[in-house]
Amino acid sequence: AAGVIQSPRHLIKEKRETATLKCYPIPRHDTVYWYQQGPGQDPQFLISFYEKMQSDKGSIPDRFSAQQFSDYHSELNMSSLELGDSALYFCASSLRLAGGEQFFGPGTRLTVL
Amino acid sequence: GQQVMQIPQYQHVQEGEDFTTYCNSSTTLSNIQWYKQRPGGHPVFLIQLVKSGEVKKQKRLTFQFGEAKKNSSLHITATQTTDVGTYFCAYNQGGKLIFGQGTELSVKP
């Protein structure tokens, strides 16, 4: 069965640079979520989209923005990167009417030097 | 905001021993989910509980939701090395997941 796809899997950036993370949800899933997981931490909700519209926002810095495109893929754009942005970034998708289960992608490991 | 507290943070067991992780909230939860994250992996959904006093089993795993819907537990009977990973409880708040801190389980063969 198709899973959530994220690219790239690893990304190394310098401070103050920009990064773009991509997520391709499971086909026919209508909701996409972004989470940030620091080392040894639990995943923290950043932002979500339902049918290409932003549906909820969590602790997402103003330097970050995200959108969902007509083909349902989503991108997380991160500017003016800081050392503290180094983390695993997970995208998850779900079918809203199917209940609460979220399917997570393999994640993008971002390292800011 | 809604928070879920999870204990213990770490648990080291000998293979064959049982393991339990607990999740607590100061307020009533409409649901609780459990996820497993293997080392270097991503969270994988295990189960969702929504009813007061609900108990669900998956092979050696037993999940409980408290009568007051303020606590939940995951119990693994006779652990195996394949059970290694971090177990998270999570509350689904209008779509977004609020995770507990997780319990990291290590199993010594």
Structural commentary:
The complex is a heterodimer of chains A (113) and B (109). Chain A has 113 residues and is mainly β. Chain A is built from no helices and eleven strands. Chain A has strands at residues 5-7, 10-13, 19-24, 31-37, 44-50, 53-57, 64-68, 74-78, 87-94, 103-104, 108-112. In chain A, the strands form two sheets. In chain A, strands 2, 4, 5, 6, 9, 10 and 11 form a seven-stranded mixed sheet that branches. A four-stranded antiparallel sheet of chain A has the order 1-3-8-7, with no helix packed on it. Chain A starts with a strand and ends with a strand. In chain B, 0% of the residues lie in helices and 56% in strands. Chain B has no helices and eleven strands. In chain B, the strands form two sheets. In chain B, strands 2, 4, 5, 9, 10 and 11 form a six-stranded mixed sheet that branches. In chain B, strands 1-3-8-7-6 form a five-stranded antiparallel sheet, with no helix packed on it. The chains are: A mainly beta (113), B mainly beta (109). Chain A binds chain B through residues 31, 33, 35, 41-45, 48, 50, 55-56, 58, 90, 92, 94, 96, 99-107, and chain B through 31, 33, 41-45, 48, 88, 92, 94-102.
